[in-house]
Amino acid sequence: MFDLNDQQKETRAWAREFAEREVLPRAAEMDRAATYDRAVIEAMFEAGLMGLLVPEQYGGRELSVLEYATAVEELARCDASTALVMSIHSSLVTALIAEFASDEIKGAVLPDLASRKVGAFALTEEDPSVPTKADPTGDAFTANGTKMYITNGPVADIVVLFAVTGVTETEREGKVRKRDEVSALLVDTDRADGLTRTQIEGKMGLTAAPVGRLVFRDVSIPASHLIGERGEGLRMAMSVLDAGRIGAAAMAVGIGQAALEAARSYATTRVTGGRPIAKFQAVQLLVAESATRLEAARALTYQAASAADRGEPISELAAMAKLFASETASFVASNALQVHGGSGLVKELHPVERYFRDARVMEIIEGTSEIQKLVVAGHELKG
């Protein structure tokens, strides 16, 4: 097992106590209603969970990436939708602003993101062939376009928007090549006239997470809200997406842990033929392989987080962790469903069918398994 130090163990225990007290009692109803309970977000703000990666000088806890991963894992163990809200807000939005924004933007935004305002990361285009554009117009940018599948989008107070702000030309081998210049812009949704937000309904898993479509129509964004340099948007996005994959891997481990615990509990209490089904070898094999793979996924996730804390390159490790942890979560949840038999298919009886749906989604969001494999292959086959 991965050896956590005392502080890391305390963080994990603190996050578990919070999740079991504030999140678990609401999880089933949020899933049934496919609606997020704002009281959970408020409780996370009050506890400091939304500011785990925000520097202390801006009101955050400034935890290590490994401590952060343990907190995400514990939230996902109780409710993956809640973990997703916190993970996107933290590992993508606050992390990008903390690393790349000006001191002025940091001072104006990070304290609120740590204490009361929800962030969203608007990168994915509804139609990649028609990218969102933010044309420079004097002391502002004018944004037009549509972003899709944006977690926290329908409820976010702050949106980090990635948009084309111009075209750059480079000459290579006598040919002039044009490339879209993508920049990152800070959008205050309270002051974004022309922004329309809609919730995506009917999701298979992570049903309570607020995920939506953002439509920008002549939205004026002050030039002072540019994060980093013009044209550096994709580089910054890729940088934080590596860390975001660690958060996604931790989420998957948490879902897998919940499914494994459900399988153990059911196997030891369900009696057939005069004895618990845990006595049957077929059930034992399902639980044993699930526990083994889950422990390996946790170790790989913690290894990637530790590498990030040491300042080492994490692109390959993070992709490996996200790939293996998400596929492991699906494997463990499927086995847990098998252990439960027919009763596991009924959401009113057991939460295991929710774990099954949530785990399957983890193989797609934050970069599909196929994308993670390409990232790993790119590192392994260089040169």
First and last CA, distance: 35 Å
Number of helices: 10
Structural class, by secondary structure, is alpha+beta
- For the largest beta sheet, what order do the strands appear in spatially? 1-4-5-8
CATH topology of the largest domain: Butyryl-CoA Dehydrogenase, subunit A, domain 3
Main beta sheet strand tally, sense and closure:
4 strands, mixed
**What is the count of structural domains?**
3
Question: Helix content range of the residues, please?
Answer: 40-55%
- SSE order, as H and E? HHHHHEEEEEEEEHEEHHHH
Radius of gyration equals 22 Å
Show unreliable segments.
none
Beta-strand residue fraction: 15-25%
Give me the secondary-structure topology:
Layout: H1 6-33, H2 38-47, H3 65-78, H4 80-100, H5 103-115, E1 119-122, E2 133-137, E3 140-151, E4 158-172, E5 175-188, E6 195-199, E7 211-222, E8 226-227, H6 233-269, E9 271-272, E10 275-276, H7 281-309, H8 315-340, H9 352-362, H10 369-380
Parallel strand pairs: 1-4
Antiparallel strand pairs: 2-3, 3-7, 4-5, 5-8, 6-7, 9-10
Helix pairs in contact: 1-3, 3-4, 3-6, 3-7, 4-5, 4-6, 6-7, 6-8, 6-9, 7-8, 8-9, 8-10
